[in-house]
Amino acid sequence: MKLSILIPAYNEEATIQTILERVLSVKLPENVDREVIIVDDCSQDRTQTCAQNYINQATGASIQYIRHEQNQGKGAALLTGIKAATGDFLVVQDADLEYDPMEYSLLLQPILDNKADVVFGSRFLGGRPHRVLYFWHSVGNKFLTLLSNMVTDLNLTDMETCYKMFRLSILKEINLQEKRFGFEPEIVAKVARIPGIRIYEIGISYSGRTYAEGKKIGWRDGFRAIYCILYYNLFRA
User: Domain of life of the organism in this record (predicted)?
Assistant: First the structure.
């Protein structure tokens, strides 16, 4: 079996090598191999150079680097990576160090136990450490999760989480359209409609970063998320 680790990156020269080190140092279950797919969404800094330098030194590691020639958005980077993935399972790993790769096994275990097809890592569930940051961001996340739950009839605690692990065969069958941060509500809406799908949540840690440290999501993305929640659930695109 193989886990595909998909890293979308845009202007992450400060962290891309560190996240690759962490991803490759994770001890996976004995029968699970890994492949790493970096999709650089036309970074304007040294992300490409830093990533390539690391890849050249990482002997024996399966790392694929893909670069968009035009900036298209995080959702577009994820679509590119999903198409390139060859594993049995896939997890999204942001390059900004907010999420800890050491928790892959937590996400993977319900799937390996044949209890789940999709596992979401919740920042609001369980007792793992969290960096304390923006109050209104947490309010916004909880509101979007509540709105999503109302129309999907799920009881998630963190719809907007980056850490979503899937059986890759499920992702390959979903027609995903969102190019930017609307990916999260779209994928939740479409996964929720799959007959017999088994969705689990598990608590994860979270080390959020400030805007000064490079955080990119803003209030416009929140309004887009509301649109996507309503559109992909009520109109079933």
Answer: Bacteria
Domain of residue 140: give its range. 2-235
- CATH number of residue 116's parent domain: 3.90.550.10
162 neighbors 117 (Cβ within 8 angstroms):
no
Q: What SS3 class is residue 36?
A: strand
In total, the chain counts a number of residues equal to: 237
